[in-house]
Amino acid sequence: MASLGSWALVLSLVVSLYGAIAAFVGARQRSRRFVESAQNAVWAVAALVTLASILLLYFLITHDFQVKYVYQYTSTHLPLVYRISAFWAGQEGSLLLWLWLLAILTVIVVQHRDRPRQVRPYLLATLALTETFLAFLMVAMDNPFATYSARPLEGVGMLPLLENPGMVIHPPVLFLGYAAYTVPFAFALAALMSGELSTAWVKAMRRWNLFAWLSLGVGILIGAWWSYVELGWGGYWAWDPVENASLIPWLIGTAFVHSAMMEERRGMHRVWNMVLPTLAFVLCLFATLVTRGGIIVSDLHGFASNLQPIAYYLLAFIALVLGGSFSLIYYRRRQLESERQVEHLLSREGFFVLVNLLFCGAGLIVFLGTVYPSLAQALRGLQVSLDASFYNRAIGPLMVVIVCVMGICPVIGWQRLSAKNMTNLSFPLLAALVLTVVAFILGITEPFPLISTAICAFVIFSLLGMVTRDLLARRRSTGENYARALITLLSKARRRYGAYLVHLGIILIAIGITGSTFYKREQLVALSPGESTVLGDYRVQYEDYSAETLNPEPATSQSRIRYATTLSVYRADSKVSTLVPHKSYHWTLDTPWVTEVAIYSSLKEDVYVILASLEEDGLAGFEMIINPLVNWIWIGGGVLLLGTLIAVWPEGRAKAVED
Amino acid sequence: MTELGLASQAQAQGRRMGGRMRFIIGGAIIIVVIAWLILSNIGGSSTYYLTVEELLAEGPSNRLVRGTGFIVGQSIEWDPQQMVLRFEIADESGSLPVLYKGPPPDLLEEGTQAVVEGRYASSGVFEATAVLLKCPSKYAEE
Amino acid sequence: MRTRLVRLLAVLFLLISVTAEVRAQDSGVIEGQVLNGTLGGTSMATVPVTLWTLDAQGQNVLLEETTDGEGRFAFQALDTEAYSYQLQVVYQGVSYWSEVVAFSQGEELLSVPVTVYESTTSDADLWVERAHFIVDFQADTLLLQELQIFFNAGTKTYVGSDGEGGHTIHFSLPPGATELQLTEGMMACCIERTEGGFAYTEPILPGEKDFFFTYQLPYQAGRHTLSKEIIYPIHQLDVLVADIGVGVTSPGLSAQEPLSLQDGRYLHLSAEDLAPGDALILHLASQSLESGPSEPVTPDSPGRVRAIIGLGTLAALWVLAYPFFKRRQGEES
Q1: Which residue range forms the structural domain that includes residue C96?
Q2: Nearest by CB to C260, which of A32, A71, A588?
Q3: Among candidates C13, C17, C100 on the partner chain, residue whose Cβ is nearest the Cβ of B57
Q4: Residue-range domain boundaries for chain B
Q5: Neighbouring C-beta atoms of residue C69, cutoff 10 Å
Q6: CA angle centred on A459, ends A455 and A464, rounded to 5°
Q7: Is the pLDDT of residue A434 over 80?
Q8: pLDDT (tens digit, 9 = 90+) per residue, A277-300?
Q9: Is residue C291, in this structure, part of any structural domain at all?
Q10: Distance CA A499, CA A495 (A)
Q11: pTM, to two decimals
Q12: Would you state the CATH architecture of domain B48-133?
């Protein structure tokens, strides 16, 4: 049966390659039959890959350990939900997931009726070619359907660290983002190849672009949340190469979202809008290169080169994509000249150029920081590693400027900054300054949090000002009450209000990051049962401890001794929470100890407790952390999601009220 | 095209050129600032990576480094009251005592490859601010 | 003009980021004594000693001296800050190295002994203290890993028997072994293939030396026998075979409890005090397909699978070819 899966992948490879060629021929020869055949090809690929995915799921769920992948990542005692999430636990499965998502997206993209005839075949060709590459990787090297010659009775099982809800959601959403970024790239390439370089292509791919950007962004946030609650080191972002690798395409993608708007409205940034989606797509491939290809040397591996075979193929494909795209851009450069020039720095056009540069600059900083150890070793033979402080110090200033621009830009007009704009900006500026002084008086004296307060307040007041002006204008013209006016605006001016919400979400995330970075408090304390300690506004009392053996027979990866401590958290003499941080010893595993942290969350802060050690007499060592404002990061993420959904919501027949 | 028309066209062009100049200068400034942000921080944030052999050879110093070696199992000491962890890392040339104030990492055991970040103090002990461990290989002697 | 300015600024920043050089201090002295380990630590007179420098760029020869009548040497005027140092003595064709030393802050004198040994061509004091033999399965190949911990219990350096062309330790490989890879303690420079395996060409100093290598063998399910010659006495041998349903038996080895390691479960056999001339023989017998504990097995009837594959391929081809054969309506665009 597993050979059925292998066959499905091989046939997908052949059919997608045929589809890419047929689409290309159909475009050049203007042959409708070739294009239709290519379209059928991508349907066939979608069907085949869906079949392969269902097969793999089936093998995982029914414990078919003869399939190597099932053996390596599951065991008979693994709960159903983690047998499903084992699909993306390893390299073979995650490639299959990526291909499956791409195949489905391809079919949706290509089915849309509104494609100009010249463009559709090139869209097909690009998407099919990417499918070919992914299928090729699996067939040539990482076949998820490889089998043993005999059937083992039991599988290795999943690492306990991976058995939690975060790892069920995070990879699929992230891969959805990677797969989705193929679409804007395909649109760009189709426009270049067909010569249809009017701004229509930007309009057509707008929703796909936002979808990809949202998926990737939400995927990154979920990953950070998982790191925070599961890895249990007290933080959510370590500037790890794997984390960075998913952030870089998102930063470029953010630049592209704004840049695309410029082309749509003003016919500008046309070369940028060819380069940025290409880079975003390539950086998604690069992210896989970092996560699975072993190109980043690290001190944990003794700086030994860990280059995997997949790295060579990924690099080759990246080179092909970059070479091909940039040649096409150069070839079409005359048709890509901007319709308008940026005349004044202090105009919306000027600020959008600034946005492009800032986000691309941030992406570049993270990229260079990630590859620096590998480069240093390859070029100078040095063995160095880069601290997290590099990223904080290099990106911090950029982020401050970006946030300021977020507050200014929606207010000012095209062409130039008018006097009215200045008036509209002055109120938020004044309000922000007043708030900052109040914050200073209340005790926030460090420079970065003060700056952060100022700019976040500025943006929030700026947004409020715009919404208020809109509401007042509407009321003046239609006499509606405020609530109705707001709802009407939300439904008619979706793009603008969606964008406001997204920017608000970013500000909330920024507030959360500032609070949890600068006002974090850590405490290492050893307590005996009955003792308590003071942590910030709280008193934490260590009540009791226990050692419990779970799942002793038969001995599996789930067999463990669970050492738990019960703590009561009091604020102002009233108990607010019971926390149970624990450590489990999985005696059958090579890496037996697994720690689970306990968190008490509120809007103001998190009380985060890690059980460091537990002696026989109950003496327990705790690491206790107060993370202020950290939940605003997740709340901001939700607002971001909501805002993007509003922005992409399809409009009815009524024309949107835009500026 | 009248002369006047040409003249005003040239003037408009001149204004546009002026605008473009300012725009290019602005862009260049941003690029330089980004480059400065990168270059000025790379040096300060790099930490060099030394084996136990190299650390012992170099001796105590004041710089922030990362050291690596295998953990010597019998040397692991955990003081639960003070929450202080002591252990030794070693390679073929010798061993180095390490002091770490914090919770003992989950993977800490004989034979694990460890990377410690901190300073090799003049007391002869490596004062670690961070301890990172690599998953042990199959060959941990039972 | 602008680009020049930017370039100048870039160069300036590059310079700023380069760390400053420390002024060199040239007053270090390294002295020591060359001792003969075989003769109980007696000094070695008139022996050449070489001083090497070590830094991030590599190793370099700095100075050479000969020891005096008491085996002592001293190197003067050394840079105390730029390098670490190591001493080398070549005796009876074997290179002996001291430990790596460096000057601490303010230190100007280092005392470094170097121990050399007599050479011997007898391997009587050489044995394998502990050997691990690990077998993994991958499709139709066996992946084998061997760890051998050698011990030279004598007081002389073993340089190989006469007429061996510089071969010291021999390793045997089962017939048909391919993809030999060496790490940890062996460099490709110091290995030569021989009949029946390969040999190490560097001298073996008294004490312990570890060797680790991997190779592959073709494998056929069913019954498979693996055979390997034992060349040196082995005090403790552990054989680990991945537990994927293949049974392992071996004459002379006793079965132990299976072990659970990082990448899976392994069947474990062991033996003690194996003598040279014996052979290590492993019989691998795969069990026939069996149903797991009350789990329905996916019926693997090859005929049905082939039918699905065949029909599926035809269907895909038809879907692709259909647009070319359907009745055209109107002109082609």
Answers
A1: 24-117
A2: A588
A3: C100
A4: 1-46, 48-133
A5: 8
A6: 145
A7: yes
A8: 999 999 999 998 888 877 777 665
A9: no
A10: 6
A11: 0.72
A12: Beta Barrel (2.40)
